[in-house]
């Protein structure tokens, strides 16, 4: 009888210990599952940062240190690198013969409450046009998006040589369209409608006249019979962006309009 009681007591003690152990494990933060690994990729244009799978990471020169400014349509084309735990320095950091300091990794809070990974203060982004590891189609887009070195600097050399002309054009179109959507919502949608349906102005959806570059720029800059002029209100970049947006939305496929074309047409 005494032996049975001792065995039962021992079993209860063991069960209690196991229960406490399981509770302790459950309370541990899932740090590894939430961590984001940033590594160094070696390439002929220079060493640059990528995630653990090799997807290229970019900085946005319109950002300020530790302050992301890419939201809305911009963030759809340039998704931020988010983290719930802490960013981890992966392969390529701390190599003694070419030392890169993983301590430059950090985080910044976004306005939606999420946490974005930074490097040397620069918020890090993906490019939606990069489909495979090693793609760098976002490099140099708009003169504001660049791969970032493991020393926290943008790679600006050799941009054009790394991409086929078509890839560069597609990337610039995507960037201008994203910027143009914001401009359109602010100054155009009240008359032309959120979907270009022509709420109180000309219908833009499926409008073949948008194929004429000079006319599109002229209407935006100088206005028309019922349309106000925006030449003094919008920069060349904003005009190029909104023109590109309306020419490539709602069934329209007329290609991009560049800042240089706007400047030449003013």
UniProtKB/TrEMBL annotation:
<dbReference type="GO" id="GO:0009055">
    <property type="term" value="F:electron transfer activity"/>
</dbReference>
<dbReference type="InterPro" id="IPR009056">
    <property type="entry name" value="Cyt_c-like_dom"/>
</dbReference>
<dbReference type="InterPro" id="IPR005297">
    <property type="entry name" value="Lipoprotein_repeat"/>
</dbReference>
<feature type="signal peptide">
    <location>
        <begin position="1"/>
        <end position="26"/>
    </location>
</feature>
<keyword id="KW-0249">Electron transport</keyword>
<keyword id="KW-0349">Heme</keyword>
<dbReference type="InterPro" id="IPR008168">
    <property type="entry name" value="Cyt_C_IC"/>
</dbReference>
<dbReference type="Pfam" id="PF03640">
    <property type="entry name" value="Lipoprotein_15"/>
</dbReference>
<keyword id="KW-0479">Metal-binding</keyword>
<dbReference type="GO" id="GO:0043448">
    <property type="term" value="P:alkane catabolic process"/>
</dbReference>
<keyword id="KW-0813">Transport</keyword>
<dbReference type="GO" id="GO:0020037">
    <property type="term" value="F:heme binding"/>
</dbReference>
<keyword id="KW-0732">Signal</keyword>
<protein>
    <submittedName>
        <fullName>Alcohol dehydrogenase cytochrome c subunit</fullName>
    </submittedName>
</protein>
<feature type="domain" description="Cytochrome c">
    <location>
        <begin position="175"/>
        <end position="250"/>
    </location>
</feature>
<dbReference type="Pfam" id="PF13442">
    <property type="entry name" value="Cytochrome_CBB3"/>
</dbReference>
<dbReference type="GO" id="GO:0005506">
    <property type="term" value="F:iron ion binding"/>
</dbReference>
<keyword id="KW-0408">Iron</keyword>
<dbReference type="InterPro" id="IPR036909">
    <property type="entry name" value="Cyt_c-like_dom_sf"/>
</dbReference>
